[in-house]
Amino acid sequence: MSRDADILLVVDVQNDFCPGGALAVAGGNQVVPLINRLSGRFAHVVLTQDWHSPKHQSFASVHPGRQPFEMAELPYGAQILWPDHCVQGTRGAEFHADLDTRRAELVVRKGFRPSIDSYSAFFENDRRTPTGLGGALRERGVRRLFIVGLATDFCVRYSAEDARRLGFDAVVIEDACRGIDTGGSMAATTASFRQNGVRVVTSSALDQEAA
């Protein structure tokens, strides 16, 4: 494995997305040991980190009378309103304590603009404002991303879609991800991966390929 044109993209393995967090994904902490094992097999590892300002516009708490998981129309389009989570400088925004981050070449912080949310590792939710990751990967000669982390149906999905849109190959390692599944989001993710040419594999299948 460890091909120089491959990279492991570890998406948002942060306390607020793990059990006990403000926006906990069921079983979110279970991906950590597997991601740690996988990271040792790649020459390149990049992490993303949700990094919201306080009173972020994607938080239900800043919209009087609105509840988490309701839909709202913001200037850049439809937006799910979330519980306050991954606020800059808080424990909830920190990476899970057991996640091995030592080999990460780059940490991409996203969602820090107060007026716009960001699911994708590559673009804000207007699908136009770049994070800079695409250019960084091209400069490193990366051609294929193996994507893991939280949550399958949001930040993993949008990162995979945008990787394909930018011309990279995208492979989602499904047992190293966990989903939220609100409003049919997991079914929509499966359909999107099929439509956009995102390959979905298990870690055991990768083990067999490498054998």
Question: How would you describe this protein?
Answer:
The chain has about 210 residues and is an alpha/beta fold. About 25% of the residues lie in helices and about 20% in strands. The chain is built from five helices and eight strands. The chain has helices spanning about 30-40, 135-140, 150-165, 185-195, 205-210; strands at about 5-10, 45-50, 70-75, 75-80, 105-110, 145-150, 170-180, 200. The strands form two sheets. Strands 5-2-1-6-7-8 form a six-stranded parallel sheet. Strands 3-4 form a two-stranded antiparallel ribbon. Strand 1 (about 5-10), helix 1 (about 30-40) and strand 2 (about 45-50) form a beta-alpha-beta unit. Helix 3 packs parallel to helix 4. The longest helix is centred in the C-terminal third of the chain and has 14 residues, at about 150-165. The chain is globular, with a radius of gyration of 16 Å.
Overall geometry = globular
Order of neighbouring strands in the sheet with most strands: 5-2-1-6-7-8
Question: Main beta sheet, described?
Answer: 6 strands, parallel
The number of strands is 8
Number of helices: 5
* Percentage beta strand: 15-25%
Distance between the termini: 9 Å
Percent of residues in helices = 10-25%
- Helix/strand structural class: alpha/beta
Uncertain parts: none
List the helices and strands in order.
EHEEEEHEHEHEH
Layout of helices and strands, plus pairs?
Elements: E1 6-11, H1 31-39, E2 45-50, E3 71-74, E4 77-80, E5 104-110, H2 133-139, E6 144-150, H3 152-165, E7 169-178, H4 185-196, E8 199-201, H5 203-210
Parallel strand pairs: 1-2, 1-6, 2-5, 6-7, 7-8
Antiparallel strand pairs: 3-4
Helix pairs in contact: 3-4
